[in-house]
Design brief:
Length: 252
């Protein structure tokens, strides 16, 4: 059985399992984490079997599953590679994207209001994607990343165009200590007139981390100000590491 056929697919007329699974997470805690620190762990979002099936898709390069492959070293992004999915997305990828968005949308709108940004995000992901496509952002952005020994991902932000949803999600598909060593997910936060602060996220296979794409509001003694965030992956020391990234805006 191929990796693609091993993924759970919805049958015509059947309801997707992802809204219920995502809604069952502790969103009160996740919302508090995002407001206070700009990131949160969503534990065991995927099973080990689902992670293995998704990681196995990387062995199916190019169309129709993927629209492009990026070798990081060629662009100065680090070492390693990743592939962007094509439309139509696999059911699991599309289902997770659509189910996670409504949980994060109120946080995104709160952040923009606090930072004095006029943009607001619609309740449903399909409506936001329609906004992206109307502006010429037509290319899907969910992706699979693959790292081998010595590979790493430089600190960066996934912006892609004028319309940016301010949160994204990364899901670790490999098991630390068994499949790979090193390769920690790293976030840095730069506050005005202060040194950058780094945080390493202790993820297990199937865990997801939701985090700020670009900036988030922080309440200071003189009002609200913006802090700038970047994310990356430290050097993999052994084995192979796979991750899926879910970005909610499309690319130009």
């Amino acid at each position: 059985m191929s990796g693609l056929s091993a993924l759970p697919h919805s049958t015509p007329g059947a309801s997707s399992p992802w809204p219920g699974r995502v809604a069952a997470l502790d969103w009160a805690q996740a919302t508090d984490d995002l407001h206070t620190q700009g990131h949160t762990v969503l534990p065991q979002l995927l099973s080990a079997e689902e992670c293995t099936a998704l990681a196995g898709l990387y062995r199916q390069p190019g169309p129709p599953l993927f629209r492009s492959r990026v070798v990081m070293q060629r662009h100065g992004f680090g070492l390693g590679e990743y592939q962007y999915f094509s439309y139509p997305l696999p059911d699991m990828v599309a289902g997770l994207r659509d189910a996670l968005y409504p949980q994060l949308q109120p946080i995104a709108n709160h952040w923009n209001a606090a930072m004095g940004i006029d943009v607001r995000y619609p309740a449903q992901h399909a409506d936001f994607i329609a906004r992206c496509h109307a502006a010429g952002q037509l290319r899907p952005t969910p992706l699979l990343l693959q790292y081998a020994p010595g590979d790493y991902n430089c600190l960066h932000q996934d912006l892609y165009g004028e319309h940016v949803f301010p949160l994204q999600v990364a899901i670790l598909l490999s098991e630390p200590g068994r499949d790979f060593t090193g390769g920690e997910f790293v976030l840095t936060e730069q506050r005005p007139r202060m040194q950058s602060r780094a945080e390493v996220m202790p993820l297990r296979q199937g865990d997801a981390v939701a985090f700020a794409v670009h900036h988030r509001p922080v309440q200071g003694t003189r009002g609200t100000y913006r802090v700038n965030l970047r994310h990356g992956v430290s050097r993999v020391r052994s084995g192979q590491r796979h991750t899926m990234g879910i970005i909610f805006h499309d690319a130009e």
